[in-house]
TrEMBL record:
SUPFAM superfamilies: Phospholipase D/nuclease (SSF56024). Keywords: Cell membrane, Lipid biosynthesis, Lipid metabolism, Membrane, Phospholipid biosynthesis, Phospholipid metabolism, Repeat, Secreted, Transferase, Transmembrane, Transmembrane helix. Could be a virulence factor. It is found in: Cell membrane; Secreted. GO terms for molecular function: cardiolipin synthase activity. It is a multi-pass membrane protein. InterPro entries: Cardiolipin_synthase, CLS_N, PLD-like_dom, PLipase_D/transphosphatidylase. This is Cardiolipin synthase. GO terms for biological process: cardiolipin biosynthetic process. One of its GO terms (cellular component) is plasma membrane.
Length: 472
C-alpha cells in the first residue's frame, strides 16, 4: 500500500470511486444471489481498494468451457429418443417432473436403459476393472479422489494394459481432491504413459480456487457402451472387506443403454476443458440400443452454464412429491430454498425422511447441520443418523418410483460451487431397491429436544459453523 500513501488524496478518492462503481456494475450484471451481491457491493464502497482486489480474486467466475460439437448421428439418435421417451410418459403421474427437468437441463429423456446398483468398492471396483479389461476402443475415467494406493495402482495398471492393446484412454483427476502439490496418482498415471489431466489445477495458489470449483464427478465410460457413476472414489478405504482404518460405505451404479451417450458427453466435455482436445467418432459414440427398463437422463451442474441445475432438479422433485421423499446424503447443509421446500412437503402430509451419518468425517459438518435443521424438524421432517462406517451415498427417491443418483451432496458446495453429475431415473424397481437402502439405515433419530437441550456454548459453536455453510 506504499503506492497509495504517495497518491494525492483527490486522486485516491477518484480511483476508489471508479473501483467501487466498476465492481457494482459487474456485480449487478453477473450475480444472481441478492445477499451475495449486496455484500460485494457494500464491501467495494466501504473499502474500495481492499474490496475491489478481493472481488477480482475471489468474486469473479472465470470458468468458461469450450463447446463440444456433437456428431450428427448422435444428435439424430437423441431426437428419436426424445420423441419416444416423451410419448411413453406423457400420462405418467410424474410427467410434470419429467417435463420440468427437461427444460432445466436441455437434455432429452432416454428410454431403454439398465441401471445396476453396486455396493461399496467391493462390488464397484471388480465391475469397473472387468469393463476396463474388456475395453476395445475407448476408456474415459474421471474421479474426484484417485489415490496411489493398492486399488489405485490396480486401476493404473489396467488402464496402461488397455492402452497397450490400442484402446484410447483418457483420465481426469481433480486438482485438489487427488492432491494439489504431489498428486501421486496423477504422477503415476503420467509415468505409465497415460493421457491424464488435472481439473482446475495450478501450482501457483493465486491462479486457482482451493475450496471451490472442484470436479466432484465420478465417471467411467468404456467403449461408449458401459458407464459407471455414483459416489465411489478410487481409494482403499472403499473396500470394506479389507477392514481399512477409516472405511467408507458408498453406492455406485453400472449403466447401459442410450443414457451412456450422455454420460460419455459429460466426460468428453470435461476433457476438452482440461486438455483442449475434442474426442469424437465411433470409438466414443457408438450406436446404442435399448437395454433395460429405466427411463433416464443425465443432470450436470457447475458454476458455469449448468449453474444450480441439480438443486433445481431437487426442488422440482420435492414440489412434485405427494406421498414420500427419501434422502440419503453424507453432507446435509442445504440452503433456505431447499429447507423451505422440504418443510412445505412435510406440512402437506408427505413423509419426508433424511438419512445422514451419525458421525461425520468432518466434525464441523455435524456442528453446522445441527444449527441448520431446526425448521425441518419443526415441520415434521424426520432426520435419521445411520451408524458407522461413514455412509457416503447420495440417493433421493420420491413416490417409490423416481430416483436421483450420482455425485452431488445436499450442500451449497455441491449445489452451486462444484462440478457434479447425477442421473434421474423413472424406474420403480430401482427406486424400491434404493428406498430399501435408505430405510435400512434409519437408526438414531435427531430430535428437537436434543437440539434445544444443547448448552449455550455448543449452540454458539454450531451457529458459528453454520456461517461457513458455503465453504463446508
Amino acid at each position: 500500500m506504499e503506492f497509495l500513501t504517495r497518491v494525492k488524496p483527490g486522486l485516491e478518492l477518484s480511483l476508489g470511486f471508479v473501483i467501487a462503481v466498476s465492481v457494482t456494475i459487474h456485480v449487478l450484471l453477473t450475480k444472481k444471489d441478492t445477499a451475495s451481491a449486496a455484500a460485494w457491493i457494500g464491501l467495494a464502497w466501504f473499502a474500495p481498494f481492499f474490496g475491489g482486489t478481493t472481488y477480482f480474486v475471489l468474486g469473479i467466475n472465470r470458468v468458461r468451457r469450450r463447446a463440444i460439437r456433437l456428431r450428427a448421428p448422435s444428435a439424430a439418435r437423441t431426437r428419436r429418443h426424445r420423441r419416444t421417451g416423451d410419448a411413453a410418459n406423457e400420462d405418467h403421474a410424474l410427467a410434470p417432473l419429467q417435463l420440468g427437468i427437461a427444460r432445466i437441463t436441455g437434455r432429452p429423456i432416454e428410454t431403454g436403459n439398465r441401471i445396476d446398483i453396486l455396493n461399496n468398492g467391493d462390488e464397484a471396483y471388480p465391475a469397473m476393472l472387468e469393463a476396463i479389461a474388456r475395453a476395445e476402443h475407448s476408456i474415459g475415467l474421471s474421479s474426484y479422489i484417485f489415490r496411489a494406493d493398492a486399488i489405485g495402482h490396480r486401476f493404473i495398471t489396467a488402464l496402461a494394459e488397455a492402452q497397450k492393446r490400442g484402446v484410447a484412454v483418457r483420465v481426469i483427476v481433480d486438482g485438489i481432491g487427488s492432491g494439489w502439490l504431489l498428486s501421486p496418482a496423477y504422477r503415476a498415471l503420467r509415468r505409465a504413459g497415460l493421457p491424464a489431466g488435472r481439473f482446475m489445477h495450478s501450482s501457483m495458489p493465486w491462479r486457482m480456487s482451493f475450496l471451490n470449483l472442484r470436479s466432484h464427478k465420478k465417471i467411467l465410460v468404456v467403449d461408449g457402451r458401459i458407464g459407471f457413476t455414483g459416489g465411489v472414489n478410487i481409494a482403499d478405504q472403499n473396500l470394506l472387506a479389507k477392514n481399512p482404518p477409516e472405511p467408507i460405505q458408498d453406492t455406485h451404479f453400472r449403466v447401459e443403454g442410450p443414457i451412456t451417450a450422455q454420460l460419455t458427453y459429460a466426460f468428453i466435455r470435461d476433457w476438452a476443458f482440461v486438455a483442449h482436445e475434442e474426442l469424437q467418432g465411433e470409438a466414443w459414440y457408438p450406436e446404442l440400443r435399448p437395454d433395460g427398463p429405466s427411463v433416464a437422463r443425465v443432470v450436470t451442474a457447475g458454476p458455469d452454464e449448468d449453474l444450480e441445475k441439480i438443486e433445481q432438479t431437487v426442488l422440482q422433485a420435492i414440489s412434485c412429491s405427494r406421498t414420500s421423499i427419501q434422502v440419503m446424503t453424507p453432507y446435509f447443509l442445504p440452503d433456505q430454498r431447499v429447507i423451505t421446500a422440504l418443510s412445505l412437503a412435510a406440512l402437506r402430509g408427505v413423509a419426508v425422511d433424511v438419512v445422514i451419518p451419525s458421525k461425520n468425517v468432518h466434525r464441523m459438518m455435524d456442528w453446522a447441520t445441527r444449527a441448520n435443521v431446526g425448521p425441518l424438524l419443526e415441520a415434521g421432517v424426520r432426520i435419521w443418523r445411520c451408524p458407522p462406517p461413514f455412509r457416503h451415498s447420495k440417493i433421493m427417491v420420491i413416490e417409490g418410483e423416481w430416483s436421483l443418483i450420482g455425485s452431488s451432496n445436499w450442500d451449497m458446495r455441491s449445489f452451486r460451487l462444484n462440478f457434479e453429475l447425477s442421473i434421474e431415473a423413472y424406474d420403480k424397481a430401482l427406486a424400491t431397491s434404493l428406498g430399501q437402502i435408505v430405510q435400512e439405515n434409519h437408526s438414531l433419530p435427531l430430535t428437537l429436544e436434543e437440539l434445544h437441550t444443547r448448552s449455550f456454548l455448543l449452540r454458539m459453536r454450531d451457529a458459528a459453523a453454520r456461517l461457513l455453510l458455503p465453504y463446508l
